[in-house]
Amino acid sequence: MTQDYEVEFVERGEREARILVRGITPAFANGIRRAMVADVPTFSIDTVRVIENTSVMFNEQIGLRLGLVPLTTDLDDFEIGDEVTLSLSVDGPSTAYSSDLVSSDPMVEAADDNIPIIDLKEGQRLEVEADAVLDTGREHAKHQGGVAVGYRHLQQVEVVGDLGEFEDDDPNILRGVIEEQAAEHAAGDATNGELVATDEFDNDLRNRYPGKDVEVSDVPNAFVFHVETDGSFTTEELVLRAVETLRDRATELKDAVQL
Amino acid sequence: MMVPVRCFTCGNVVGEHWEEFKARTREAEEPEDPEKVLDELGVERHCCRRMLVSHKDLVDIVSPYQ
Question: Which domain of life is it from (chain B)?
């Protein structure tokens, strides 16, 4: 199956992006989504050696909290299974934060600085040594780089007539992204073919097409992905790595079945 | 006891916003509307919002009984 596809950014940010992909099947779109969630590895603390813990939490609870802290991951320099050691040593009274984690490798450190690990009172102390390991979301959810990754069909709105003067004035809620097809009826500036996120008109089609009767339909084979990362890497890195794992597996299958 | 690091449902990191959320909605002299604070912090989904809205710090309550 060879088919042309096209990729376009609707919104683009470090940690959150919306990407429109045209010319792919629903099955392939779901494949990309699953690859983003399960197949792109990130660093996460996996083993904790407790040297001293006189806090109000058990060692296991501290270990769980440390495991969930996102760590910056550069996938060019590490392979699955690589380990990096981090240490944490805090004396009470104070709070241990994710920024107190000291890494042996400057490329792997806490992506968010303000996450409270444990509140320490007078005389309490926490000292641990932890090994972070690079692994995939398939292995454990703490290794997932993508957060709330999903997709929707791109939608188009067709104006089919005017609303009657005494018609019910119910909200016409729509979420996602629409491709403008009826610019002449739209409120404000609009050009046909433009991509409009529905939150621009408060998710209510009455605001976009005042007084018009509209019908919404899906644009075939066009999907808008919503991609968010936990800070381990950028959205761009996540999507590219996900597609790469898909390609690698397809190539592997092709080689395996060749005569 | 301590605020969860991540949202149970979607896995977004919410722990980093806790202290600001707490300071602005519960400890300030004129507490702000939690809805507004969460919007400003960029905690959008209702799964993540409930993590902060429904949380109570218990370390101070538990610590005398060590």
Answer: Archaea
The answer to whether residues A51 and A134 belong to one domain is: yes
Identify the CATH number of the domain in which residue A90 sits: 2.170.120.12
- pTM for the model stands at 0.86
Q: Are residues A92 and A179 in the same domain?
A: no
Q: Which two tokens stand for residue A39?
A: 């197949």
CB atoms within 10 A of CB A191: 8
Give residue limits of the domains in chain B.
15-65
Minimal CA separation from B48 to chain A, in Å = 11
Tokens of B39: 């919007």
Instruction: From A83, A109, A138, give the residue that closes a domain.
Output: A138
**In terms of CA atoms, which chain B residue is nearest residue A143?**
B11
Last residue of a domain, one of A138, A172, A207: A138
Name the percent of chain A in helix, strand, coil, to the closest 5.
25, 40, 35
ipTM: 0.89
Q: Which residues of A touch B6 (CB under 8 A)?
A: 68, 230
Residue type, position A247, single letter: R
- Quickly count: other Cβ atoms within 10 Å of residue A177's Cβ: 24
Tell me whether residue B47 is annotated as binding: yes
Q: Give the H/E segment covering residue B61.
A: helix B59-62
pLDDT tens digits, residue range B7-51?
999 999 999 999 999 999 988 889 999 999 999 999 989 999 999
Region for residue B62 given its phi and psi (left: phi exceeds 0; alpha: psi -120 to 50; beta: otherwise): alpha
CB-CB under 8 Å, A116 with B59: no
